[in-house]
Design goal:
The chain has 4 helices and 2 strands. The protein is mostly helical and 139 residues long. The N and C termini lie far apart (96 Å).
Length: 139
């Protein structure tokens, strides 16, 4: 095989691989393309899914067991409900402990988009704990 044919074959193979890899990930997002939360979903997948779990974007970054937990395993947002203010605080300050998550992982409008998306979709599998009303004595 001539050198130019080998180069052409290599380039074709690399282009095919790039196209295949470029298609990965977008199929995991279960937010409609017409949704006002779609951009936030894509940003979350691109910037947060390595450490956090959220089924609606196909993210599985959180530990599912204490045995397989690693230092970068962040909260599971299928279970943990967040509001916009909490998400923006965490984004600006590197989470709530400041130990692992980078500060300002997204900024400006991107941070707002992620916060609105996460406030809308987090906590879908949150478990409720039965409670009993308690009356305090005033004696």
């Amino acid at each position: 095989m001539r050198l130019s044919a080998k180069i052409a074959a290599t380039v074709a193979l690399l282009l095919a691989a790039a196209v295949a890899l470029g298609a990965c990930g977008s199929q995991g997002i279960k937010v409609a393309k017409s949704s006002p939360y779609r951009r936030g979903a894509v940003l979350f997948r691109d910037h947060c899914s390595g450490c956090h779990t959220l089924g609606v974007v196909g993210a599985q970054g959180s530990a599912s067991s204490i045995k397989n937990r690693v230092r970068t395993a962040g909260p599971n947002f299928n279970i943990r409900k967040e509001n916009v203010e909490q998400v923006l605080y965490a984004i600006r300050n590197g989470g709530f402990s400041g130990a692992i998550m980078p500060e300002n992982v997204v900024v400006g409008n991107d941070a707002q988009e992620v916060a609105r998306f996460l406030a809308q979709y987090s906590g879908s599998q949150a478990q409720t704990t039965p409670s009993t009303p308690i009356e305090l004595s005033t004696k």
